[in-house]
Amino acid sequence: MNKLAAKITDSEVEVMRVLWQAGGELPVAEIRKTLERTSKWESSTIKTLLRRLCEKGVVQAAKREVFYYKPLVSEAEYNEYTTQSLIDRLYSGSAKNLVASLLGSKKLAAADIEELRGLFKVGDSDE
Amino acid sequence: MNEIVWLLLSLSVSGSILAIIIFAIKPFIRHKLPKSIQYCIWIVVLLRLILPISFDESIMNQVFYGDQATLITSPQGEENPNTSFIWPHVQENVSNGTYNNDTDHSRYFSDLFNQYLFYIWLLGVIIVLAFNLIGYARFVKNINQTNRPASAEESQMLTDLLNGRENVQLLRNRYAATPMLIGILKPLIIIPDIHFSEKQLKNILLHEVMHYRRFDIGIKWLTMIAASLHWFNPLMCFIKREIDHACELSCDEAVIRNLDADEKQAYGDTLISVVADHKYPPGALQATMSEEKATLKERLVAIMKYSKKAKSNMLISIALLISFISGAVILGGCVDITNPNSNEKPASDNVTTNVTTMVYDARIKNKLVVIDPAHGGDDFGGTYPFDVTDNSLVEVKEKDLNLKISLKLYEMLKTSGIPVEITRKDDRGLSLDERISMANEKNAALFLNIHTGMANDESVNGTSTTFCSDKNRQTAGLTSERFAGLLQNELHKQLQTTDLGVKEGNFKVLTETHASSAIVDVAFISNESDRKNLMDEAFRDRAALALYDGVIASLHEMVSAEP
């Protein structure tokens, strides 16, 4: 889910918030009505944002008499992601200079791990 | 304040020399000597970069202050003899019109640069420090908001490892990417909120507790401070990386010292599994981490190859460490600002004190300075009555005052190793032509005629310097006008008399000498308060010192204009 949350841009979050607040799926007219109060976006902008969200798989569109939009990423998941990325950014910024960590914050690819596991064999005769 | 910049620069050079030596010998020692020794050597470098401790004969003092760079001055009334190092005051020079004849503005900008060097450095330090501290504070704040306490058993395990002390808190955090130890005063160990086996957790805690015991966080803070102070040194980032690396390697070494083969295997496996854990989706974090991989690989190899080092290796290690410490001390830093000489009070009035000064360009010792005390012999200059404290009246003769100041200046320059001639060393009459030909025959670079002012109006007082503008041809890189400007700057700054500024005048000693020439009117003999000053030896000493500083600055400008 974090993978999806990472794709949401700041302006798209505004649209997502409307969907999260509604707690379910909404038709485009409803979304527009809510956003008109908080922003100056044209309806074409809102449509574009929704289209992009659908393309990313963050929002699902279902056609009944009109299109209904349903968030596939929850607000909690998104908040989790932003906190994580903030902490990671701060850590790799300057905090790691002042912290004694076991290893770096980066993860290695499976192939590298296999290589290291293969290499690391402590012999018995080294004492 | 620029002394601080010089000090920092000298520390930077010292530290860099040590670091380069370590980089050079690293291939020979990295697998042979204990990692703890390698870490200690880096700490020596770190301390060299931060501590301004040195002694007079240190290499950096020699390099930065020159070997014969002592001047003799009587210290009476001398608050800060170290001001003999010149940093021209741009604003004064602008108002004096010192730069007016410059065809390009490079001199203006280089003076300006020198004057603000300290502030440029300070600004850099503040920016780098702020970046580090704000980033760290935000990190700590954000991570602390999301911490949750570890289980009782886990905390107990930590307490056991700490031999019962409970001063380190164990916390779990789902946003932590790797186990870490944070903080000096309230140390916390934060581990990612994922499942670890008991063995893994123990290995992780062993590592972090070792960091805590060895006060590695303190070293990390010192490294950050050194990196901030030396932000201008490009080697700093390599030094920082090496220190971090040596810190981890020696921490591993200390952990596995008492482990058997199986436990070592488990420790290394823990390192691999922590870095392998797929907590995150592929994305920003999992870039091509070749450096990360190489670092881990080196640590694993070090664990595999670890063996109790032979005694001979231990001896080599200690010898190496001692030679690095002595190397660091010998390199030293130039510590003029902490030089206790500047505060020494001499026993008697005539005792001279050595003052270190910046003679940083040896080429100035190829220039001849000719000092010309005006008047002499039957030519008294001005004569004025002067009340001595015991109510007796003496006659003050200008020729004597000129000679006294000139002789003092002469001795100072001579002691500093600057070639210097004086037209008369005693009370004798000299014609203007004799004075001029003496300067011209010996090919003087600077000609300095020392006078005191006289005016019918006895209220007129102050200090002025006179030059002749048709001598403004570029005499060896320094115009007479610039020479006069530099002298007047120093006199005004150090004597605090009325600043009468730089004047033009077609006097014979100015027009006919080939050198850059100036006439200095130190003060007005005709004015009562100036006269009182002139009769005071401390004032004359300050005048001589100001002239000395002006001459040294002029010589530096002269040689710096040379190719």
Task: Summarize the structure in words.
- The complex is a heterodimer of chains A (127) and B (563).
- Chain A has 127 residues and is mainly alpha-helical.
- Chain A has a domain at 2-75: Winged helix-like DNA-binding domain superfamily/Winged helix DNA-binding domain (Arc Repressor Mutant, subunit A), CATH 1.10.10.10.
- Chain A is 56% helix and 11% strand.
- Chain A has six helices and four strands; from the N terminus they run ααβααββαβα.
- Chain A has helices at residues 2-5, 10-22, 28-38, 43-56, 75-93, 110-119; strands at 26-27, 59-63, 67-71, 100-101.
- Chain A has a three-stranded antiparallel beta sheet.
- In chain A, a hairpin with a 3-residue loop joins strand 2 (59-63) and strand 3.
- The mean pLDDT of chain A is 84.
- Chain B is α/β, with parallel strands linked by helices.
- Chain B folds into two domains: 2-68 and 118-279 and 287-331, no CATH class; 361-560, Aminopeptidase (3-Layer(aba) Sandwich).
- Chain B has a six-stranded mixed beta sheet, with helices on both faces.
- In chain B, strand 12 (463-467), helix 15 and strand 13 (499-504) form a beta-alpha-beta unit.
- Chain B is elongated.
- In chain B, 42% of the residues are buried.
- Chains A and B meet through helix 5, strand 4 and helix 6 of A and helix 5, strand 4, helix 7, helix 8 and helix 9 of B.
- Strand 4 (100-101) of chain A pairs antiparallel with strand 4 (180-182) of chain B, so a sheet runs across the interface.
Using brief descriptors, characterize the structure shown.
heterodimer, A: 127 residues, mainly alpha, Arc Repressor Mutant, subunit A, 3-stranded antiparallel β-sheet, 56% helix, elongated, B: 563 residues, alpha/beta, Aminopeptidase, 6-stranded mixed β-sheet, 4-stranded mixed β-sheet, 18 helices, 14 strands, 12% strand
